[in-house]
Fold this sequence. Notes:
- The chain is mostly beta strands.
- It folds into 2 domains: 3-116, predicted glycosyltransferase like domains (Thrombin, subunit H); 135-214, Beta Barrel (Thrombin, subunit H).
- The protein has 2 helices and 14 strands; from the N terminus they run ββββββββαββββββα.
- β7 (77-87) and β8 form a beta hairpin.
- It is elongated.
- 25% of the residues are buried.
Amino acid sequence: MTSPGPAGQDAPAIDDRTRHITDIRGRYFLAKWRGESPTVSSFTCRIRRISPLTMSLSAPVGGTVGDVVITHFDELGVITGTIARNLGFGFVVAIQALHAERTRLAARVTWLEKRRNFQVPERRRHPRVIPRNPESTIILADGSRMRCTVIDMSASGVAVAADILPAMGTPLAVGSAVGRVVRHLDPGFAIAFITPLGRGDLERRLIRPAPEQVYL
Length: 216
């Protein structure tokens, strides 16, 4: 089965098998709160189960079916959706996302599962950060530029997805941070910086979309 893609085309089917990831903690608020107060309160939540289409949350404050929910998790980034069903202590969210975003979410959740089961090594020395805006630019050694999506970043390196898979050791820059490819991922690849960045500099240095005309 396929799901609708852009311009009425069919996109590849999404694997919607439920992922049994627990104890991913984050925060959430209901979009309708924005109109009620200039200060929007958020609450702590925890993912009980997640798939590319739905996630169930343990949450202290509920809403009504159809309410828009905005969530943020350090390991997954921002996920938006609507309440599909209320639970005893929480609710099920129908995730609103493009096909490509669902594919990236599925890959990220699968990777987290493997890491928790010790099937993939934890190699980062510094905590990962999920950028609010993941779109950036790779600059290759010959000066050519290419769009990329930042999967996550830390003071020592960054994981990105792009339309290329550079060889191990390839020098390049993501935004204004220079490094070398040190690992191939599924999807994407990891870059270790030549000089570590300060945590406060990550988004300023790494998230730098370039003008449309410079892309190859």
